[in-house]
Design brief:
9% helix, Porin, 3-stranded antiparallel beta sheet, 3 helices, 9-stranded antiparallel beta sheet, mainly beta
């Protein structure tokens, strides 16, 4: 039996004196326990092993700052949630973006800047959209349960159950930088007319700098159950694992897209009508979030 309790706090206030750019703290509480088993009964002299781990994590910015995106929690992968890709089990949010769409005729041909000189390219119209992006969570709970059965030498078979919830608890911690917001709000959007290939009559858009979590993707329970064959590699001192995971809980959601696109952002006429319809179809249509139902993978790592 091996019992371990790990508390790993990043005390940002204390580190701020040494590293002036530290403006967030991340407490992580983890508990692991391994029990010798004989069949389904706990026995010190048992040949099999029942192991489990629970982990609770939280991140918080302070002094008016927020934790950077790379420091937030993105679950999934061999080390915690085997049925999902690394950093794939995460909440999603609407991130404002400035993008360009090509002005296109109803027959599908682009409108050139200069009909007499196609090398100059085509007319493009800047439009404001909201792009779905994995934003990570500021809180995460993970539990892992394994029943390990030795087969021969370093080879063993395991039955596992991995569970995770990663959530955005404080939406105020999802904010864009001031510089990023200024870059989005400063230029004009749309092209009501064009002269010599240059757009005229753009509109001013003011995005809010708070990134909104997408409804239906936040705090989604995810769980993988499956079987695994592993063998300890002598040189790297890590197990080579071949496992199959079935995801009983996953993100499977249809979400209506969002944008600030209006017909007034496009020039009058057939090209404007067609391009507007194309923009709505591309950026304001139904989104399908589909995480995998099952995973079969070879890995060299350990879960806990």
């Amino acid at each position: 039996m091996d019992v371990a309790i790990v508390v790993l706090p990043l005390i940002a206030a204390a580190l701020a004196g040494l590293f002036g750019n530290v403006r967030y703290f991340t407490p992580v509480v983890q508990y692991k326990h391994f029990i010798g088993m004989k069949g389904l009964r706990p026995r010190r002299d048992g040949r099999n092993t029942l192991g489990y781990r629970v982990q609770l994590s939280y991140i918080q910015g302070f002094s008016g700052d927020v934790a950077p995106p790379f420091a937030r929690f993105y679950s999934g992968g061999d080390n915690e949630l085997r049925g999902f890709d690394v950093r794939a089990a995460t909440p999603y949010g609407w991130v404002p973006v400035r993008t360009n769409i090509t002005l296109t005729n109803p027959d599908g041909t682009p409108v050139p800047i200069n009909p007499n000189n196609f090398t100059l390219g085509n007319i493009t119209i800047p439009i404001p959209i909201y792009r779905p992006v994995s934003v990570g969570g500021d809180a995460a709970f993970t539990s892992n349960l394994e029943y390990r059965i030795p087969i021969a030498g370093p080879v063993q078979f395991e039955i596992f159950d991995d569970f995770n919830i990663t959530a955005v608890v404080r939406a105020s911690q999802l904010r864009q930088s001031v510089e990023g917001a200024d870059q989005l709000n400063s230029p004009l959007y749309g092209c009501t007319a064009y002269f010599n290939g240059a757009c005229q009559g753009g509109q001013s858009i003011q995005f809010i700098n708070v990134i909104r979590p997408i409804y239906g993707t936040n705090a989604v329970p995810r769980m993988s159950i499956g079987g695994e064959i592993s063998a300890m590699l002598p040189i790297v001192n890590a197990p080579m694992r071949l496992y199959y995971a079935y995801n009983t809980n996953r993100l499977y959601e249809n979400v209506q897209g969002e944008s600030l696109i209006t017909r007034s952002m496009f020039p009058a006429g057939g090209a404007g009508d067609y391009t507007y319809a194309e923009a709505i179809s591309a950026y304001d249509s139904l989104l399908h979030f589909r995480e995998p139902r099952k995973t079969f993978r070879l890995s060299v790592s350990t879960t806990f």
